[in-house]
Specification:
Blueprint (H helix, E strand, L loop, with lengths): L4 H27 L20 H9 L3 E5 L2 H7 L4 E5 L7 H9 L3 E4 L4 H7 L2 E4 L27 E4 L4 E6 L2 E9 L2 E6 L1 H4 L10 H9 L4 E5 L17 H4 L4 H19 L17 H15 L2 H20 L7 H12 L3 H9 L6 H27 L2
Parallel strand pairs: 1-9, 2-3, 2-9, 3-8
Antiparallel strand pairs: 4-5, 6-7, 7-8
Helix pairs in contact: 11-12, 11-14, 12-13
């Protein structure tokens, strides 16, 4: 279907606008932080190392899960009905981490660190030869139906701390519960990530540990929220470029678009212009023949004559356009009932080297072609 002129112009503008939108979208996506740049235990990350599946399970069980990335926002939302869940807050100083934890009555750390074990007075790292597959092994009622788990990091509990899912070599979960405040720590990277949550009793343990209260504030530490002076926060490309770069880029895009509109205008339909001179094919043939004669190149002329004869014979005999000269010679000899060797010498043999040899060679080619033409015509006309 042929598109009218207005339709083609409209289609062109649609393509230009689409390219501009695609370029703008790509710029926004590149400037925004990607999923890979987030914390590996991010509850909004769908990849294997994220914890989006655990957050979804909590929501399906009626627990409200709010993901926050600001310490101030987390402190503002905490109350007696909330559980503060976070990974190791390495971007925060001890003071900032202590202030955040003191605001919460229920804290679950899903990635351990020696600093947090010391700050919460929960215990220390244990280093067994190989982490076992363990059962609950403690009196916490919420863990009664968890079953077995295969923990990663084990811990040695401090005095007064409840150790669950472990043996004499260490425990996978430490819980300190005193004065209405609960502090728990677990190696969530080995149990609660999206790729491991469906194994054994990991999902049940996550629901029992994090779903203790009806509301979860899941704080995701980041360098952007850091209060430490000894950490260099990596800057994005937008932070490193001067402020005048963005206006200049936008002005350049507008200028390029206006230039495309200006130079892309059509001044009307294309007009067909007749050629001032028409050269007949016969004149071209005669001109080439005179050039060949002037050059006294009999072999080149004979090669051109033989090539034309081969092409016409192949078409007449039903062979391929680029059939081997020997095959064409054999087919022609069979059709007119002559010796194959004579046809091969004519169509595939040596070329004449002088004008005296060229004339009879051309005559024999013409005679062969006429003979084949007559033989084919007789065969087609016979009943």
């Amino acid at each position: 279907m042929r598109i009218p002129g207005r339709g083609r112009r409209a289609l062109g503008w649609i393509l230009v606008i689409g390219l501009v939108v695609i370029a703008a979208t790509a710029g926004l996506l590149l400037s925004a932080p990607s999923v890979a740049e987030r914390d590996g235990l991010d509850p909004e990350r769908p990849g294997p190392g994220g914890m989006q599946a655990l957050a979804q399970i909590l929501r399906q069980q009626g627990v409200t899960v709010d993901v926050v990335r600001s310490r101030a926002d987390a402190e503002h939302r905490l109350d007696d009905s909330t559980t503060l869940v976070m990974s190791d807050p390495y971007p925060l100083t001890d003071t900032a981490a202590r202030e955040l934890i003191d605001e919460a009555s229920d804290v679950v750390l899903v990635s351990p660190s020696a600093r947090m074990l010391r700050m919460l007075d929960l215990g220390s790292y244990a280093f067994p030869s190989s982490p076992p597959t363990v059962r609950v092994g403690c009196s916490v009622a919420a863990f009664a139906h968890v079953g077995t788990i295969a923990p990663g990091q084990l811990f040695t509990p401090a005095p007064g701390v409840t150790a669950c899912f472990g043996d004499d070599d260490g425990a996978a979960v430490l819980i300190a519960d005193a004065d209405g405040e609960r502090r728990a720590i677990v190696d969530g990277a080995a149990l609660f990530t999206n790729e491991r949550l469906a194994e054994r009793g990991n999902a049940a343990l996550g629901l029992a540990l994090l779903g203790h209260r009806p509301h979860v504030i899941w704080y995701v530490p980041s360098l952007d929220d850091s209060d430490r002076s000894d950490i260099d926060v990596p800057k994005s490309l937008a932070d490193l470029t001067p402020g005048w770069v963005t206006p200049v880029v936008v002005l350049g895009m507008i200028t390029a678009l206006l230039a495309a509109v200006w130079r892309g205008r059509r001044f009307g339909p294309l007009v067909a212009e007749t050629l001032p001179v028409t050269v007949r094919a016969s004149e071209t043939m005669l001109g080439r023949a005179r050039l060949t004669a002037k050059a006294a190149d009999a072999a080149h002329a004979a090669e051109a004559l033989r090539a034309g004869t081969l092409a016409r014979l192949a078409a007449r005999l039903g062979l391929a356009a680029r059939a081997d000269p020997g095959a064409v010679a054999d087919a022609a000899a069979d059709r007119i009932r002559v010796d194959r060797a004579a046809c091969r010498a004519l169509l595939a043999g040596d070329l004449p080297r002088s004008d005296a040899e060229l004339v009879p060679y051309a005559r024999r080619l013409a005679e062969l072609e006429n003979a084949v033409e007559n033989a084919v015509r007789i065969e087609r006309s016979s009943p």
